[in-house]
Amino acid sequence: MSELLEQLDINQYFPAALDWASNILLAIVILLIGLWFAGKVNKMIVAGSKNSKHLDDTLFRFLGSVARYIIIAFVIIAVLNRFGVQTASIVALLGAAGLAVGLALQGAMSNLAAGVMLLVFRPYKVNDFIEAAGRFGKVTEIDLFTTILQTFDNQQIIVPNSQIWGDQIINHSHFDVRGVDMHFGIAYDESIDAARAVIDGVLAAHPHVLKTPAPFVEVETLNNSSVDFLVRPFCQGEHYFDLLYSVPEQIKKALDEQGIEIPYPHRKVILVNETNKEI
């Protein structure tokens, strides 16, 4: 054993060992600095959300994560390069794998792209009442892939963002003041001015109807059996459904009290009694 140690020339392996040790040390330094820098960039991007009131925090968190993982990927490639690994083939392999994953997750990617557009342009926000993708409800959560709605009967609806972005979006909460359209018909024999006065009285007494802008009460259509009014009171957005479901009942009762007829479709049948004629 001693003879074997004497024959072993340590100086022969010292340069290689020193080279490997320096590479390992440098790789550790690159890795630590890269991870620190990736985390720093992520925090800087997330902190940028505080300076922008028009963009959602979720978008900044997503962009921060993307930037962090991209930096970490380059750091890992740099570390492998220190050990003589051919990184060009690895980059090509990662590109091919990314393309394959993108094709396999095409639907998810379309939802992701739509989610980014929704978070950038913000056609709605949390707590807004919207109508989109054939659904209506209160927005409880917006993420990169889906929008979650809560209906009036406390159902949770999860809608893919691609369905929302590719269709019409109606935001019922965008403006603070809302108009509530309603239609009422009276018989042709009734006085239009008297009916308008009754409707105006109901709206004036309602606590949620705004004085400015003034309610709109005008004849809209002359139907077959009725003279139809378009009634549009204005209210704060949070009282929209209070007016929508309370005013029709109040107007119906007020018209009944004044003896103003609300007609329903009817048909007049005329019977003709024909006598036999002598030939």
UniProtKB/TrEMBL annotation:
Is Transmembrane helix included in the keywords of this UniProt record? yes
Gene Ontology CC terms, in alphabetical order: plasma membrane
Tell me the membrane topology, using the record's own terms. Answer: Multi-pass membrane protein
Residue span, Mechanosensitive ion channel MscS C-terminal domain? 180-262
- Per the similarity annotation, which family is this? Belongs to the MscS (TC 1.A.23) family.
Assembly and interaction partners = Homoheptamer.
Q: What does this protein do?
A: Mechanosensitive channel that participates in the regulation of osmotic pressure changes within the cell, opening in response to stretch forces in the membrane lipid bilayer, without the need for other proteins. Contributes to normal resistance to hypoosmotic shock. Forms an ion channel of 1.0 nanosiemens conductance with a slight preference for anions.
The name of this protein is Small-conductance mechanosensitive channel
